[in-house]
Design brief:
The structure is a homodimer of 399-residue chains. Chain A has 399 residues and is α+β, with helices and mostly antiparallel strands. The first copy, chain A, is built from 16 helices and 6 strands. In chain A, helix 1 packs parallel to helix 6, helix 2 packs antiparallel against helix 6 and helix 12 packs across helix 13. At the A-B interface, helix 1, helix 6, helix 11 and helix 12 of A face helix 1, helix 6, helix 11 and helix 12 of B.
Amino acid sequence: MHSLSVHTDGSAAEALQISQRLIQVGIALSSETDLQRLLALIVQQAKELTHCDRGSLFIRAGEELRFFVVSGDKQLQDLCIPLSASSIAGYVVLTGESLNLPDVYQLPTHVPYTFNRQVDQQTGYRTRSLLTVPMRDPSGQVMGALQLLNRLQPSHPTPLDPDQVVEWSQPFSELEARVAESLASQAAVAYQNVQLREELKSAHLETIFCLSLAAEYRDQDTSFHLKRMSNYSRIIAQAMGLSNREQELIFYASPMHDVGKIGIPDAILLKPGRFTPEERLIMNRHPEIGYEILSKSDSELMQKSAIIALTHHEKFDGSGYPRSLKGEEIPLEGRIVALADVFDALASRRPYKEAWDLVDIFRWVEENTGSHFDPQVVAAFNRGRSQILEIYHCYREPG
Amino acid sequence: MHSLSVHTDGSAAEALQISQRLIQVGIALSSETDLQRLLALIVQQAKELTHCDRGSLFIRAGEELRFFVVSGDKQLQDLCIPLSASSIAGYVVLTGESLNLPDVYQLPTHVPYTFNRQVDQQTGYRTRSLLTVPMRDPSGQVMGALQLLNRLQPSHPTPLDPDQVVEWSQPFSELEARVAESLASQAAVAYQNVQLREELKSAHLETIFCLSLAAEYRDQDTSFHLKRMSNYSRIIAQAMGLSNREQELIFYASPMHDVGKIGIPDAILLKPGRFTPEERLIMNRHPEIGYEILSKSDSELMQKSAIIALTHHEKFDGSGYPRSLKGEEIPLEGRIVALADVFDALASRRPYKEAWDLVDIFRWVEENTGSHFDPQVVAAFNRGRSQILEIYHCYREPG
């Protein structure tokens, strides 16, 4: 990082004030756990510290740059441009040099990069001064670029008219360039941390789906069923106002609800016809076997999954199994998964039955509210109906 | 955080220099992923920034404070003291106030806290000036305290004699107190991030053990077997010089090596006596079934586990199954897990056999090097023997 003390304007006191602000910003960035919010926070802080009108981020993804524009409350994203030194951001990422350009419509002729005026044309904006700095991680790798558009006077109100923005646009100072570089280095670490955490979580989720499916190998359940029912469970949990943490736990735990089927003998699990009452009794032991398996682990997630495995066949009126629990004796997560699981089973084709129409399922759920299902869970399910249908269409069985 | 500009000594230029240093320190702390190294880095940076002789950290754990002393290359840790305002660190954690004490052997009489001279007596050290600041996370919660001992003149060489340390010990300045507070806030976020990541990883590992065991439910394999063999695999990978990332992947992936047994019919898997050749053929399909199940997921971990499942019964001379691969045709992770798995099977009692003596196993492994096992894997296994034996004793079957 370049030192902030090497600056040609601004007093030491100003630099000190900004440095202390950067320490605070670093802490705020480090504590943000959501990628979208982090991106917005980086740009917002950069705009405030350098007094500019707009900002965007470019994140390197292989041979491309993913482009995030943050302007006001709009977020454009997931646009990609090829990584090449002919664009300004590409040049900065590839060389690791900052570019502090007073007017992008009047670039020197000998430079390898050009300003893409199409973006201005498409957005009705007019860029003049443009500061682009590398996002360099502590190992020295440049993982992206922070781009700041149109430096304005801090004292002025922000102009709304694009022509006025251009008129008021000033070059960024050397101090502002150093500040942006410093912020971009902090942002690089924060971004990598959030990304690493998301990778860890998604690897965990993959493991859960894959091994839960393994446990149901003989039962020929599909990963689509597990994905749909865990999403339905999360949507219901959200509509019931449970905390993010609880929603996430139910989402991760619910795919494991049937692992107890592993303990059911082939002769019963794989029997083609109807069960005898004795066979049904054995089959109905799978919630308890699941609980036995999953509760061996102390982790909060496995404890939750054990409870779901044990109680997802209980019914609200006490007519379920294995313990004939009634009403709120059934843990909430069990009541939620009970609905998510049955809903998805009815909506799916199975070797012995066709998929029901959605209209029929919603009516049937309504009819069984208070007997099979908790009325509050059904109410939440109905509030989340549009999201439920999104998942229903998104994770269709192939073919 | 208190502003560094509110200080009674030191020039603005000095404060600016320190602020910029703190920005760098914040980035360094944020990018550290190992908890032990992070703790050492926090204390080291705090010592350098405040010119003191020693430092320690107190991390709040419920109603206790966990105590980490870092002095030179020694790290004392996992000592606990009750969280109470009668200790200096406890007072700081409970009130959120910093304490900047010029001489802890001459505390004012009216204060609620006392200095515990026993620690000095036990360590042969002599504390005089002591600065203790809260580690406050961005939500305002105090999650610990940073404690700095004996402020020395930056220009002096560090004295080795405890009496000289006392003689040279000076009070910490107000600026140093503010710097330590700022650093402690950065440290709080970095610590929480690493802790959260460790929690995510350990939850993932729990899931792997629990669900891998579920898949082997009928086979009555034990979680101890899975824990031992995955640790053995990691030790071998480490002794072979594989990267930390590769070691970790093998450690997480290896417990899933037998999930394919889920696809073996009860009639064969649960058969008490010897297999007929036809039954053996079916039984030997478990590596391929495991591969089929695990390779459905794209995650790097599951891909690795699929390869291990497929190849852990191959032998170095080509006499293994299912593909009779030879030498380096067998992926390295398969060769590693082959040895770890067989070693643990021989060392364990099974319903049909006693546990072998370790001496016999090591001899048998030696005899089968080049035929069953890769000589390089065996060499690494022998280099890691002391760690292997540690795991062997640590994860014994109960009873």
